[in-house]
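Subject: Sanity check before I submit

Could someone independently write out the structure tokens for this chain? I want to compare against mine line by line before I put it in a report. The sequence has 470 residues.
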Amino acid sequence: MPQAQLETDLIHRHQEDARQAALASTGILDTPPEPAYDAITRLAAEYFRTDTAAISFADHSRIWVKSNWGHRIRELPRENSIFEMVLERDGPVVVPDISTLSQSTNPLPTIRLEGARFFASVPVRSPDGIILGLLTIFDGRPRPVLTPGELRTLESLADMVSSQLELRRLRNTVAKHALLSSNDGNCPPGDWPCRADLRRALDRREFVLYYQPEIDLVTRKIVGLEALIRWTHPDRGLVSPLDFIPQAEENGLILPIGDWGLAEACKQIQIWCKEDPSHESLRVCVNLSARQFSREGLADHVEALLLQSGISSRQLGLEMTESSLIPNLPTAMVVLASLRKLGVSLLMDDFGTGYSSLNHLHSFPFDVLKIDGSFVRRMTEGDQALQIVRTIIELARVMGMDVVAEGIETREQYRLLRLLGCRFGQGFLFARPMSAEGVTQLLRLPGRVLPDPERFKVFAPDRAESEVEG
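---
Independent answer below. Compare away.
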């Protein structure tokens, strides 16, 4: 790549990092509805007599809709979006008739607003001029270009959004300073990691995904992978998710961390498929937290990532535990139905540990049950655990679901699972969680078939990488 292009790319990256840092400081993403923003979109729609008005903000991968008045606008992929048009122009974009745009520049497929013909979009900026989002009006009929006075009015409304953002940022700053001042600028003793630690890890790109192969227990072919997050801390080394995910859930950072994990998994699927098109049959599964699962617009966000990465929905699996579903069953059913409509695989993780698994299983549209590793480990210790595993496998067969046994560590467990008719499994007997580079080497095995563990040792990365489980 020419030096000039490298320098340009570096400048763009620095600009994007500054934009994301400014956006993060407002704390606006994935927050509950706020009347102030809805009042602005309503005022914009009524003043310009348009069908719809929306306020949206752009993170790395998607356009996140904070407020809309009129027709509902879904979360959007950022690539080739109206946001990118405004960013490139560094100012307003007004399109009197979308149908006159060339197919390559037509943003209609990404705004997901059927029947829209006209739109006008102005930037929402930070105090130092960084474009963080948009105020956009849409209409179902072509309209004349806005007059200079009308455009100034729309920009004034966008300034109102910017003022609300700055108030939010100042509140966050005051709260942060109060916390730091009360503890000499450090996290409370014994309270590691705190929000500041996790925010810093996100900003410095210290999180990484490891992958554990899922295999066909009959053929030993790698059929999928489970993505597992790790934290490569500069001082503490490789940190287990058990040591930071609970804190991320408590302090509200599980959503941006989860969004990063989903996006990273989709990008890695794309990389593997480019190396070998036969890898398109692989499914990479990502664990969802309860907070992620309960958020509005989850299916829209997943669809945006699929579109941006260019992978098919069948290449992505989403794992969730029963505990993330039971607290709000009506919401759970709506979210599951929307994900099912996308075509992604739905997996119930840790099946058998929930107090009401059998009561609710018939209501959930899952494709796969994952047998909790605690049952697999006890299969050889007594008849009870063996019968539980047998029952789960038979239940899945009756309901037309696949079954994956987790935590296979011994040859005897492997033998028993095959005798019981369990088709898929994962565990240290075959491969430990490893980096994307380590998985790439495994995928290059002929036919993606692992050697028979009866004859060969387990595939594992270096000990330093393999000591972190989960």
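---
OP: Matches mine. For the report I'm noting this point. The chain is about 45% helix and 20% strand.
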